[in-house]
Amino acid sequence: MALLSRKQIDGADDRRWEDVDVPEWGGTVRILGLSGTARNAYEASLVQLGPNGSVQRMKLENATPRLVAMCLVDENFERLYTDKEVAELGVKNGAVLQSLHQVAQRLSGLGKKAVEDAAGNSAAAQSGSSTSA
Predict the structure, then answer these.
(1) For 32-66, how does the pLDDT look when each residue is reduced to its tens digit (9 = 90+)?
(2) CA distance linking residue 8 with residue 13, whole number of Å
(3) In this structure, what are the phi and psi dihedrals at residue 73, rounded to the nearest 5 degrees?
(4) Cross-strand partners of 30
(5) Contact 93, 24 (CB under 8 A)
(6) What digits encode the pLDDT tens for the residues 114-128?
(7) Domains in the chain, please, with CATH?
C-alpha cells in the first residue's frame, strides 16, 4: 500500500456516524463520532488539574449528556446542542442518553481506557514515538 500525502489525508472523509432509532423521542437521531480535537476537549473536560498539573479529581457531572450533545447532529452534520445547552439535553431520560452515549463512545474511540488515559493513569499511552530506518 502506498504512503499517503498530506493532501490525500486532508481530503479523506473519515467521519463515522450512525443513525439511531429513539422510540422514546418518536424518531431517529444521528450520532457523529468526535474529531481528534473534539475528543481531546471532551477528555480534558473530565478532569480537574491541581496546581502542580496532576489530576486533582474526575469531573463526571453531566459527562453523559455532554458527550451526546457533542455528537448529536442534523442531516448536515451540524450540532443540535451547543455546549451551553448540555443541561437541557441532560433532563431527558437517562436510559436513552446512556444508549446514545454508548454509540458516541464507540464511534469516537472512547471508553474506560480513554478516560483513564485522560486522567493520566495509563503509562503505556504516554510512551515515546517509534522510529524506523
Answers:
(1) 999 999 999 999 999 988 888 888 888 889 999 99
(2) 10
(3) -130, 165
(4) 19, 73
(5) yes
(6) 555 555 544 333 333
(7) 15-120 (3.30.2220.20)
